[in-house]
């Protein structure tokens, strides 16, 4: 999924020292326990993320699926809960009112606005819709039961003249995160009526920077998360193939050699990946950057041994992963730490569909 606007769980004033937990192995059972705990009850520090409840649920459910432990949850109950967030027009007159009829991110965003329009609520959101459809695929729900025509028709209202997407009909920033969400939604629903693919492609191409990476918007600094969103979107839309590195000389719509050079410079001396030059290594970029390399066919260039070692320094004794070594775990970095170990081929884990951010089995339904 595109990188959400989530802050990690608030950290204590004095974090433990970097060597407070030294387990040289991936501790699958602790990670399953950590996610089960999050499934039952989120800590109070997540209260300010209530608007992103579906995104947090995606981290939990998809994480358990990657850990081959999706049987720990009631799939039917999860599907019913997710479907309760779907937005529907109240009448035929509202079907063409400019709103997006996807999924709300939480209960609060379902509250009606005040009669005088003083209070404007979130409404359904592209990121929440991506997370909802991902969860439904993971638990085996048949997406053909959803009114995809209404969802996709209304989603086109979010696409801007330059090809970018707003995440919500009342207006917000437009960048590659929501481009990715729109592409993933169309791909999962097997219906591309939700976007103008050619306009979307041109917007993505315009986000490639002089150094080879992609910024969130045209002209902005290259960023690991934005680069994943760009490359994964192009792959989902069919504009780049399985092994872009082998076919990049003349046929690619992006500068693949320059892109590869920028990506490979993101693995730091400590073995981890950074999101931008001169930044510290961060657990989540093992996915954002590593998955991009996998899509391009360049995963073999990663120093997997050193990346594995870095990730274990971020593994918590409580289960889960922290952003940096020696800190307490949060749900966001825990999920992307788990995806990173799936990419590294960790034993006992399910394989990851890197373009969609869910397991291969969930993506294909097989």
UniProtKB/TrEMBL annotation:
EC number: 2.5.1.59
A Pfam family hit: Prenyltrans
InterPro entries to which the protein is assigned, alphabetical: GGTase_I_beta, PGGT1B-like, Prenyltrans, Terpenoid_cyclase/PrenylTrfase
Extent of Acidic residues compositional bias: 1-10
Any one GO CC term of the record: CAAX-protein geranylgeranyltransferase complex
Keyword Ion transport part of the UniProt annotation: no
Family: Belongs to the protein prenyltransferase subunit beta family.
Official protein name in the record: Geranylgeranyl transferase type-1 subunit beta
């Amino acid at each position: 999924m595109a990188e959400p606007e989530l802050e990690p769980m608030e950290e204590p004033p004095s974090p433990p020292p970097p060597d407070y937990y030294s387990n040289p192995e991936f501790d699958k059972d602790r990670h399953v326990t950590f996610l089960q705990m999050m499934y039952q009850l989120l800590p109070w520090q997540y209260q300010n993320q209530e608007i992103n409840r579906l995104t947090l649920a995606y981290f939990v459910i998809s994480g358990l699926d990657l850990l081959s432990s999706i049987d720990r949850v009631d799939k039917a109950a999860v599907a019913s809960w997710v479907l309760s967030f779907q937005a529907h027009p109240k009448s035929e007159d509202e079907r063409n009112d400019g709103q997006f009829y996807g999924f709300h991110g939480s209960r609060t965003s379902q509250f009606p606005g005040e009669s005088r329009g003083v209070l404007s609520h979130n409404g359904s959101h592209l990121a929440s819709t991506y997370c909802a459809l991902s969860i439904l695929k993971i638990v085996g729900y048949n997406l053909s039961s959803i009114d995809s025509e209404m969802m996709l028709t209304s989603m086109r209202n979010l696409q801007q003249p330059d090809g970018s997407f707003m995440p919500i009909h009342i207006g917000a920033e437009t960048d590659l995160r929501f481009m990715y969400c729109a592409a993933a939604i169309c791909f999962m629903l097997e219906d591309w009526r939700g976007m103008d693919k050619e306009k979307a492609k041109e917007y993505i191409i315009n986000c490639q920077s002089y150094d080879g990476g992609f910024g969130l918007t045209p002209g902005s600094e290259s960023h690991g998360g934005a680069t994943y969103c760009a490359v994964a979107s192009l792959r989902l839309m069919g504009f780049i193939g399985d092994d872009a590195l082998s076919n990049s000389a003349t046929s690619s719509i992006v500068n693949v050699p320059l892109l590869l050079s920028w990506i490979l410079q993101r693995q730091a001396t400590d073995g981890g990946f950074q999101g931008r030059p001169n930044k510290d290594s961060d657990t989540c970029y093992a996915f954002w950057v590593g998955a991009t390399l996998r899509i391009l066919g360049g995963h073999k260039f990663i120093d997997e041994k050193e990346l594995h070692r870095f990730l274990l320094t971020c593994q918590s004794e409580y289960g889960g992963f922290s952003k940096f070594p020696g800190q307490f775990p949060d749900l966001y970095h825990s999920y992307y730490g788990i995806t990173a170990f799936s990419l590294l081929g960790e034993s006992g884990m399910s394989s990851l569909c890197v373009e969609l951010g869910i397991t291969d089995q969930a993506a294909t339904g097989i």
